């Protein structure tokens, strides 16, 4: 692990090449029970005031990429409203502790984002708790592997689309009246948006939809001074992988062969992309997909 995200060095060895043991948890999973526990940047992310005074709503903020983003945002000076499922409270408590240790406000809003009413209540709670809202970061996601299309139940197909596509739609729509010029939206796609794994048909197609939706929305909202961008992660070590996100037998090799860098990414390595797209530094960037995937080629 580097001293901080600015420490110069060889990216191939910057984080360890991990060989996780076969392990499985029921969805949504508890990150602190994983082997190894993903690196959220707790001991490395150094803020430099890039998001001073910003008020951000982050979904999936208890673990993995969303949690790393929440910690980074707080250390950059933002107050954060965190969305996650009630079962994930222990993971969320760890992130809230990190946000408060950075001297920022954390507003916890547990609940199920597959419910449109909850998405609207989530936005209201964020606005009330933070005293406004100027950054939306949709990171929550559902991914369950199935060998064949015949194994994907109607319920799974619908739940994956509701979590990954409908929820960002509901949240952005509810947040829009609160977003002043200068506000930002960052959605989370995936390499799977362009290179769908055959055993993740529902998941991969939601990621294509998110990428497409975000690019269209970016063109619509730029005239209001609101920038919409996308982060597309590649294989990143997170609890999503051990809650039937991938075939458990493949876990020891996770991330080693897909990406040219030869290792899985850590959530800590994704956070700076979200910081950049939310900060005013990216003022001329809209409708862009920032691929953070260890060197895999994208369209
Ligand atoms: P993660 O499991 O740590 O985070 C996903 C989060 O989604 C959960 O913590 C949970 O809070 C939230 N969530 C799921 N269903 C929900 C629901 N019904 N209501 C409320 N919250 C819900 O895993 P992660 O890998 O950090 O995933 C974050 C995002 O990154 C996802 O959108 C995922 O598709 C995307 N992504 C991950 C990878 C990877 O390799 N890990 C690769 C590409 C894209
Ligand atoms: Mg979680």
UniProtKB/TrEMBL annotation:
The keyword Protease does not apply. SMART domains: PKS_KR. Residues 1-48 are annotated as: Disordered. Keywords: Oxidoreductase. Residues 54-240 form the Ketoreductase domain. SUPFAM superfamilies: NAD(P)-binding Rossmann-fold domains. Belongs to the short-chain dehydrogenases/reductases (SDR) family. This is NAD(P)-dependent dehydrogenase. It comes from Amnibacterium flavum.
């Amino acid at each position: 692990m580097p001293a901080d995200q600015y420490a110069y060095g060889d990216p191939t060895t910057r984080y360890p090449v991990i060989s996780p043991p076969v392990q499985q948890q029921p969805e949504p999973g508890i990150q602190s029970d994983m082997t190894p526990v993903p690196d959220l940047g707790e001991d490395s992310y150094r803020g430099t005031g890039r998001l001073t005074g910003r008020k951000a709503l982050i979904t999936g903020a208890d673990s993995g990429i969303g949690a790393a983003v929440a910690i980074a945002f707080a250390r950059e000076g933002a107050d954060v409203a965190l969305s996650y499922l009630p079962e994930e409270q222990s993971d969320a408590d760890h992130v809230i502790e990190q946000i408060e240790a950075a001297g920022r406000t954390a507003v916890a809003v547990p609940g199920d984002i597959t419910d449109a009413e909850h998405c609207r209540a989530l936005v209201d709670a964020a606005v009330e708790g933070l005293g406004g809202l100027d950054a939306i970061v949709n990171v929550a996601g559902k991914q369950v592997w199935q060998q064949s299309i015949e194994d994907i139940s109607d319920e799974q197909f619908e739940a994956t689309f509701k979590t990954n596509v409908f929820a960002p739609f509901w949240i952005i729509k509810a947040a829009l009246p609160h977003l002043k010029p200068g506000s930002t939206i960052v959605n989370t796609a995936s390499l799977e948006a362009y290179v769908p794994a055959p055993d993740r048909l529902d998941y991969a197609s939601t990621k294509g939809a998110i990428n497409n939706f975000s690019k269209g929305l970016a063109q619509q909202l730029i005239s209001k001074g609101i920038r919409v961008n996308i982060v597309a992660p590649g294989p990143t070590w997170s609890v999503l992988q051990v809650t039937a996100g991938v075939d458990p037998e493949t876990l020891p090799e996770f991330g080693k062969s897909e990406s040219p860098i030869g290792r899985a990414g850590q959530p800590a390595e994704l956070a700076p992309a979200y910081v950049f797209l939310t900060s005013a530094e990216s003022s001329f960037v809209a409708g862009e997909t920032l691929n953070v995937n260890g060197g895999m080629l994208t369209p």
